[in-house]
Structures are given as C-alpha cells and as structure tokens.
Amino acid sequence: MFKALIIVDEFPAQEGLNKLIHHSKLELFKEILVASSVNEGVELIREHQPELMFLDINMLNEYGVKLFDYFDKISFDVIFTTAHSDYIMDSINNWGCLGYLIKPISILELKNVLHRFK
User: In this predicted model, what pLDDT tens digit does every residue of 61-80 receive, in sequence order?
Assistant: First the structure.
C-alpha cells in the first residue's frame, strides 16, 4: 500500500478528490495526506515520503509546479489536478507527469490514472 499527498489550496476540492479516491475502490493507499500550499506540501513530502502526488497547478497565490524547485530528484509520481487545460504540454514535456485530470474530476479518468500508477 502507498502514501499519497493532495496539494490543493481549496478545502472543497481537497475533500472532493479525497472522496473520489476512496470511491475508486482501488484500495491503493494506506494514507492520504493533504496540504493547502506548496510549502506545506514540501514539508509533508520530506516527512512522509509519499509515492504519489495530486498537485493543483494554478493555486491562489502560487503555481503548484514550484514544488519541483525544492527537490533535486523527484522520487514520486505526479498527477496534476487543475481546471485549466493550458498546462498539458508543459506537464508532460517538462515535469513528466503520470496523469492530468481536469476539474471537475471524473471518477473514470481518476481510475484510469490510478491503474497506471499501480
């Protein structure tokens, strides 16, 4: 079983994604952590070392991709969660994401990406 981290700045989006993950019934995660900012996420990554990150790209005061500036080596997979399709090419070409989910997130799309992670 794995650890996951959701980095999203809006509480309803955090809760909604967490519920979708549980409703996927894939039982992949022993722990799902939640952060509201990149800085909080960095601390949780260093402390808990999750294998999978759900990362919002366009948060209120920052871009989620700033997370990558804090690590020399990325030892986790990233699934971007965003309401914008503008960042798809950068997400694939520059950050090598595992998946790109556009809000509102479809349970089917989430399951597809989680199967690829598994």
Answer: 888 889 999 999 989 999 99
Give dist(CA 47, CA 33) in Å, integer.
11
Domain count within the chain: 1
Q: What is the pLDDT of residues 85-104, one digit of tens each?
A: 776 677 676 777 898 899 99
Closest CA to 55 of 2, 7, 101: 7
Q: What is the reported pTM?
A: 0.92
- CA–CA–CA angle 63, 42, 94 (5° rounding): 50
The Cα–Cα gap between 100 and 113 comes to 8
Cα–Cα distance for residue pair 47/56, rounded to 1 Å: 20
Range of the domain at 40: 2-117
